[in-house]
Amino acid sequence: MVEKRIVGTETPRLDGVAKVTGAQMYSSDVHLPNMMCGVIMRSPHPHAKIISIDTSAAEAMGAICLTRDDVSTYMYNERLVSVPSATYRDRTLLPIERVRHVGEPVMAVAHETEELAYKAMQLVKVEYEVLPFVLDPEEAMKDGAPQLYDEIWYGLEKGKVHNNKGVIRNVEEGNVDEAFAAPGVKVYESDFTLNRIYHNQLETKTAVCAMQPDGSIDVYSTTQSIHGSRIIISKLLGLPFCKVNVKKMAIGGGFGSSIQINTVTPICAALAQKAKRPVRIASSREEDFYSHHKYPTKFHLRLGVDPEGTLVGGHVTALVDFGAHQIQPLAYMGCVSGWFADMYKYNNNIRFEGTAVYTNKTPCCAMQGYGNPQINFCVESLVDEICNDNGWDVVDFKLKNYRGVGDEFWGQGPTIRSIIKSCGVEQSLVEGREKFKFNERTPYTEKSGRFRTGTGLARGFHCSGTGGPSEGEVIDFSSCMIKINEDGSIDVLTPLMDHGGGTWDAVAKIAADTLCVPLDMVGLSPAETRSTGFDVATHATRGIYCGGAAVYHVAKKVKEKLLEVAGRIMLENPSDLEVVRDDELGQAVVRTKGYHRKSMTAGEIADHARIFSWGTIAYTDSYRQKNCPPCFVTHFVEVEVDTETGEVKTPRVLMYADCGTCVNPQLLEGQLVGSYNRGIGYALYEDLPHDPKTGELACKGLLVNYKTPTSYEMPSIANTKVEVCDTYEPTGPFGAKGIGEAALASVSAAVGNAIYNAIGIRFTELPILPEKVLAAIKEKEGK
Amino acid sequence: MNTRIIPKEYNYTAPQTLAEALDILKQKNVRVLAGGTDLIVRLKMGSEEAMETMLDIKRIPELKGIAYCEKGAHIGATTALADIEENAEIIKNYPALRDALVAMAAIAVRHMGTIGGNFVNASPVADTAGPVMVYGGQVHLKGPEGERVIPADEFFVGPGKSQLKEGELLTAITLPVQPADSGAAFFKKTRVKPDISKISTTVYVERDGETITNCRIAMGAVAAKPITLPEIAKEAIGKKASKALFAEMAAKVADTIKPIDDIRSTAEYRKAVANVMVAEAFEVAWKRAGGAL
Fold first, then answer.
1. CB-based contact (8 Å) between B201 and chain A?
2. Using the beta-carbon criterion (under 8 Å), do A698 and B263 form an inter-chain contact?
3. Domain check: are A454 and A589 in the same one?
């Protein structure tokens, strides 16, 4: 009998029991015999020359100290997903000459316990020569501003840094000037300021590193890429790849913050190498706060529109304040140009001018969307403005201008282009406006009273991975090994990481359906860099579409081998055989097609192969996706603005998700709802101002000072609706594409547009705090 | 700073009797652990350098629990905020205190934190201070020289400073029985629900028909300590309750207070919302006093 497909069925999360009972092993749970604990001394200064480091007192109490004298001077970039020529490198394992932001690691100490290590660290004397510092990117570009670097590695070449400009990236297609100058074209423009926020993932960055008797090192760490981590550790420790074994661990969320290796991991590895004992370093929350932020960016956006409501061109200038080290603002700006280009067709007239500037602040890295929520807020706000100004229906305007099936899509900036083959935009907009009663909304001019409600709409998307017909500047492929065990169960070995979105559930389901076994007959093997082929990282919403595709590809090959072996046993041509799942037998069954005269279970076949010494039915390979499909989302949001206190609530939201075939329905809903929570955090609550005198974070890295929305700030469960588009991605495993980052893309714009609809005020700066709302209302009323 | 580590060693003692506790308090540099939601945080942040002994008073039975009798409510110093918030007599007789408690922090913190701790910590933002002050509450202190009882609105001195002397313990907060036709309400503004107040207000009124016969107003997070505004409150007495009067009172409060800019909000915003919140608090307090508008 043929059973229902597992992909798309609600199944209990594979790691659910382990996670809710606390049995799940994370890096911080790894306790090895003879293990020491490490702590990192961090800079109190935003910019200072390190004159000397005296560790004698700490060493006298038995501590192992790691300083600049112990480490390699190789310059690296924490993030390793781009090709070497597009990876700018500016940091060393520990700073050699100077520190460049408050909280930057200076040196590290290991001792028997964390408390002893901390005590010893307090005895280390570091002499600094305090240097002038700069926090504002515009100030940083001026002549005479404090310079963070003389030279860095621009890919394969070393070069000077001028006026702190770390990256300049311009992209141009068509002719914007001509498009804007055409008769009848009206150009709308606005400045936008997007805030610096913190990832606030549950697990703070942790590493446990243990030297082995053969001179190799085992690494258990918080990472979204075990192979990326191995390459960096290998370079920094001077060990061949075969001697660096990074283990695949569960991680407590990432939101992009562990695409890079994280500075604690190489420090821990070097400390373990020096101590010749296992060492664990677990960052405190405050340390983690100083490790990575979302890219704050100032934009100037110009959009040209003709009298018929067609966008004829778009021009973006971006100023990125990325902090003291590059975790790839080059790729960030490329992506932002792409996300911009992908929103609408603009008659192919696009200009992007980006400058990314060093400042004495925490380095910025990817955070759910990699620039997409940033530029989305600008574009969708200005489009709302254009529609309001011209009296155009915003849904109709979007339907007229969006990029959909058959159009070009830049998956990861201008170097990664493919053609859109599946798209849920029409369904989301047309169905959504009815369902949400968006078409019945009234303008703000018809609203009065203290509490005013408004509705807003924004649409967004993200890429599914970074593959494509031709290789661009981002590396993308994954690897997998699958074998059929002698009882018919299967083992799947993949280096693919799951940072909470359910990637491992997805690949197990894909393997189960391809090889026609029940889900509980799939085992996900422990994996490490030694036992797996390369996978770039779980980032760019690529887990299911790219990682899952590698599993799908290998599973199909294993299936071919299964049929071949079955054919030999059953004396049938393999092409006359088929595999089906039999839930009663709990097995895959191979049988003759059409008239099932003969049938055997996969277990019987695999065991036959064992008994006759034919070998294991297994296959291993790498696989690259030759496409990069966008996953689309649409947010309809209702806000309620208290015009006397400036407080904004969002009592109702409708979200559309276009992920092709939905693999994990509950997890998909969780992604959308969770991202909505993060989205309102970005739009309404979170910000990371710095103390201009000390260069410290105003919140000092304390969560009591940095508030993120809780369940209280969310709409009720009944008013939080997720709809899944009916789409199929022909290039994805079982028709699936991504969703993770897309889920966040258009939240803040929808909230901003809803606020405009409620009170007639356009906010172009996030977060939209009650203090700002109240001030704007008073200004508008002339008070 | 590493808030996972307490970077110092200290003695820990948890006596079973009040006498023992007072005895230990005679030593040098003793810090009292009543709930820990402030002390442990400060320890981890390295700002309790001088502490030599941590005196845990949570195991002293007479310091814990709520009693209600004809004189009013007696709340032991180490009664958890969550226990007070769930107490039927408190809910019935002191709804503004209940408002403040459920609005405080996250649930886990309310199960750890205590009312005695909230008072002795003497934060300008202490949410329980306003309701206790306007209900005419008293603070009971015990030391080597015996017991002292201080009106709650005289207890606070400045940030982290109160009338509590060295060697003394706060043993209880008492609240008198409330007159018939009286009512109070607490309002606060925060960034997100479980948060420290940007600003808070508590308003208390007594009613005779349509006239306000007594009034007290307390404000949090607008000065160096939780404050009451008796001069302004006095102006409401003898007046007929109305929305206009409440708005007038709120405007006076907003004009008088001198809040500051900090990480949670701005002085300007605090003044602006005081103007709204105080009027709201008046309205609810008046309704609770049985008044109509």
1. no
2. yes
3. no
